[in-house]
UniProtKB/TrEMBL annotation:
Entries under InterPro entries matching the protein: Aminotrans_3, Aminotrans_3_PPA_site, Class-III_PLP-dep_AT, PyrdxlP-dep_Trfase, PyrdxlP-dep_Trfase_major, PyrdxlP-dep_Trfase_small
Co-factor requirement: pyridoxal 5'-phosphate
Entry's family note: Belongs to the class-III pyridoxal-phosphate-dependent aminotransferase family.
Cross-referenced PANTHER family: ACETYLORNITHINE AMINOTRANSFERASE, MITOCHONDRIAL (PTHR11986:SF79), AMINOTRANSFERASE CLASS III (PTHR11986)
MF terms in GO: transaminase activity
Record key words, sorted: Aminotransferase, Pyridoxal phosphate, Transferase
Protein name: Aminotransferase class III-fold pyridoxal phosphate-dependent enzyme
Organism the protein comes from: Hallella faecis
Length: 380
C-alpha cells in the first residue's frame, strides 16, 4: 500500500527535536520558525512534557468518556483560570476542525438557525461544516457545498451588520488573526461592533483561536487584544504541543443536554496529560509573556530589515504569529531558507512568509533568523 499523495513535501525527514531546533536523518540541524504549523507551543521534546506523558502512559493511556476522567476536570479548571474564562464550560475533542464543527453545531442547536457568516480568506478546517466556513473552493467538495455560509470582508462592519439584521444568522465565526489568510488582523472597532450586532440579533459569536490562540499572540487568546468576549472559543494546535487535541470553551448560557455532543477519543487520558504539561510549562517559563516580548522584538527587527530590503513589502502580526509580505513568490525565499540556511518557515497565499515558532523562541533565535532571512533576500 502507498500513501495517498495529497501533500507537497520537502525532501527532508525530520527525526528529532529539542526546543526551537529539529534535526533530519542526516543529523542536519534546523532552526524551526514553523513549529509544525503553530502546533509546537512549549518547544520540541520539552523534558517536563516527556516525563508527564511517559508517566501517564505507564498508568493508563485511554479509557472512554463513559467513566469519570479526573484529568479532564483538571484541564478545564486550569484552562479556565489561566485564560480568564473560569465561568465557561469545556468540551474536549481531537482537532481544530472537530472543535469548529462542534461549535457550529452548538450554535445551531441554540438558535435553531442554519446560516453562518465567515470572513473572506477564512480557514476553519476540512470537515463538513468547518470546510463550508472556509473560503477556499478548492477544498470544498460538492457534498460540503450546502450554501450555509456567507463570506464577508474582514473589518467591514457595515457589511456584517446588514447580514445580521436579516435575523437568520446562526453563528458568526472569525479568527482574530487570520493564519492561512495571510496574518490579517481584525481591528478592535470591527470586533466590538460585531459582538454588539451579534447580541442584538441573537447570533452566536465564535472565535476560532486554533492557530492564533493559546498564547501565540502574546495574550492567552488573540481576541483578548480586541476587547470582546465570544460565546464560543475553539482551541487546538498548541493545547497539546503535538499530541492531537482540541476543545470548545462554551459560555454558561449554553445548557448541556445528554448526548448532544460526543467523541470517542476526545479528552482521553494521554491527551489531558499533554495539555496539563503544556500549562505547567506556560506557567513556569512565562511563555505567553515571552511570546509577546520576543514577538515584538522580532517584528521590530523585520521592520528594520524592510527599510533596506525592497523585497519586503509589509510586516504584520502579533506576538509569535507574523506575516511578511514579499514582492516575490514565498517559495523563492522559503525553499532556500530550508536547503541553504536550514531554517523552517510557513507560508500563506502566494507571497506571504508565515512565522509560527515555538513560544520559547529567544531573542538570539530571532536575530539568527533575521540574519538567515537577510542572506537569502540579498541573493535574489
Amino acid at each position: 500500500m502507498k500513501l495517498f499523495d495529497v501533500y507537497s513535501l520537502f525532501a527532508i525527514n525530520i527525526v528529532k527535536g529539542k526546543g526551537t531546533r529539529v534535526w533530519d536523518d542526516n543529523d542536519q540541524e534546523y532552526l524551526d520558525l514553523y513549529g509544525g504549523h503553530a502546533v509546537i507551543s512549549i518547544g520540541h521534546c520539552h523534558p517536563h512534557y516527556v516525563k508527564v506523558l511517559e508517566r501517564q502512559l505507564c498508568n493508563l493511556g485511554f479509557y472512554s468518556n463513559s467513566v469519570i476522567n479526573g484529568l479532564q476536570e483538571k484541564v478545564a479548571d486550569r484552562l479556565g483560570r489561566v485564560s480568564g474564562y473560569d465561568d465557561y464550560q469545556l468540551f474536549l475533542v481531537n482537532s481544530g476542525a472537530e472543535a469548529n464543527e462542534n461549535a457550529l453545531k452548538l450554535a445551531s442547536f441554540h438558535t435553531g438557525r442554519t446560516r453562518v457568516l465567515a470572513a473572506g480568506h477564512a480557514f476553519h478546517g476540512r470537515t463538513s461544516l468547518a470546510v463550508e466556513a472556509t473560503d477556499n473552493p478548492k477544498i470544498v467538495a460538492p457534498i460540503n457545498n450546502n450554501g450555509h455560509t456567507t463570506f464577508l470582508p474582514l473589518n467591514d462592519l457595515p457589511a456584517w451588520e446588514r447580514e445580521l439584521a436579516k435575523g437568520d444568522v446562526c453563528a458568526v465565526i472569525i479568527e482574530a488573526i487570520q493564519g492561512v489568510g495571510g496574518i490579517r488582523l481584525a481591528t478592535p472597532e470591527f470586533a466590538q461592533g460585531l459582538a454588539e450586532a451579534c447580541r442584538k440579533h441573537g447570533t452566536v459569536l465564535i472565535c476560532d483561536e486554533i492557530q492564533c490562540g493559546y498564547g501565540r499572540s502574546g495574550k492567552f487568546f488573540a481576541h483578548q487584544w480586541l476587547g470582546i468576549k465570544p460565546d464560543l472559543i475553539t482551541v487546538a494546535k498548541g493545547i497539546g504541543n503535538g499530541f492531537p487535541m482540541g476543545g470548545v470553551l462554551i459560555s454558561p448560557r449554553f445548557v448541556p443536554v445528554k448526548g448532544q455532543l460526543g467523541t470517542t477519543f476526545g479528552g482521553n487520558h494521554l491527551a489531558c496529560a499533554a495539555a496539563l504539561a503544556v500549562l505547567d510549562v506556560f506557567n513556569k517559563e512565562h511563555l505567553v509573556d515571552n511570546a509577546h516580548e520576543v514577538g515584538e522584538y522580532l517584528i521590530g527587527k523585520l521592520k528594520e530589515l524592510q527599510e533596506t530590503e525592497p523585497h519586503i513589502l509589509e510586516v504584520r502580526g502579533r506576538g509569535l504569529m507574523i506575516g511578511v509580505d514579499l514582492d516575490v513568490p514565498h517559495k523563492d525565499v522559503r525553499v532556500p531558507l530550508i536547503h541553504q540556511e536550514h531554517c523552517f518557515t510557513g507560508c500563506a497565499g502566494t507571497n506571504v512568509l508565515r512565522l509560527l515558532p515555538p513560544l520559547c523562541l529567544t531573542k538570539a533565535d530571532a536575530d539568527l533568523f533575521v540574519s538567515k532571512f537577510k542572506h537569502i533576500l540579498d541573493t535574489l
